[in-house]
């Protein structure tokens, strides 16, 4: 039996050296993770262990639409794994609710950051931009559930021309997640007011090679810059993962991003 398995291993390894077969195996593995995730979520719902609210992190207590609404990375957002690398920064900023009087979220998706930050900064004006109209109903429902809907102005595509029509204050926070569009969007030579506001940018070198370093170069003379890298799932902070197999754990909190990514936290230098 051992020799047969060894032979099978050698055959499969040789087959997977073919790029097409390797892609097929990767696709099957991805579909297996999706199936496993659905099974685990269904069991958590049946056991009453999957609430419709964020349990931990800086947005703890934020209500989420019921599970008939699709929320990307719902499990991670509920249990505190989603972009947890930013938790210390957001918690630090939220210590003073008057830090920002305007929040601009470009790439607002289902509203996790738009609504979460609106709750933390209750006096701030909130502008959200999301071109994907499939996602905006969830954003609006999340905002309504958390009683911040009247404070959020929602628009579609944001371009440099759109940014130039805004009148930000020095206490503006700009949050951007636009899957590579940050290169044309975040150019202070085209949008001068970017030089004077705080910026939290998710960079996507997987889509635009070198974009992280390019943004650093664009803002090094006007901002203090901190790069926050991905650090992997926070297994220890999610106790219910201990009841799952490692494949199930990976299906729930393992990243499907194509590459390691970073965030840039940039605050204006004193003038």
Helix-strand layout with pairing:
Elements lengths: L1 H14 L3 H28 L27 H6 L7 H7 L8 E5 L5 H9 L4 E5 L6 H10 L6 E4 L4 H5 L7 E5 L5 H4 L12 E6 L7 H9 L3 E7 L16 H8 L8 E7 L3
Parallel strand pairs: 1-2, 1-4, 2-3, 4-5
Antiparallel strand pairs: 5-7, 6-7
Helix pairs in contact: 2-10
- How many distinct folded domains? 2
CATH architecture of the largest domain: 3-Layer(aba) Sandwich
Task: Give me the strand/helix succession.
Answer: HHHHEHEHEHEHEHEHE
Looking at the structure, the CATH topology of the largest domain is Rossmann fold
Q: pLDDT average, as an integer? A: 94
Give the total of beta strands: 7
* Gross morphology: globular
Please report the first level of CATH classification, the CATH class of the largest domain: Alpha Beta
User: Largest sheet, described in full?
Assistant: 7 strands, mixed
Structure description:
The protein is globular. The mean pLDDT is 94. A 7-stranded mixed sheet has the order 3-2-1-4-5-7-6, with helices on both faces. It has helices spanning 2-15, 19-46, 74-79, 87-93, 112-120, 136-145, 160-164, 182-185, 211-219, 246-253, and strands spanning 102-106, 125-129, 152-155, 172-176, 198-203, 223-229, 262-268. The chain is α/β, with parallel strands linked by helices. The protein has 10 helices and 7 strands. It folds into 2 domains: 2-46; 74-268, Vaccinia Virus protein VP39 (Rossmann fold, 3-Layer(aba) Sandwich), CATH 3.40.50.
Describe the structure in brief.
With 271 residues, the protein is an alpha/beta fold. The chain has helices at residues 2-15, 19-46, 74-79, 87-93, 112-120, 136-145, 160-164, 182-185, 211-219, 246-253; strands at 102-106, 125-129, 152-155, 172-176, 198-203, 223-229, 262-268. The protein has two domains: 2-46; 74-268, Vaccinia Virus protein VP39 (Rossmann fold).
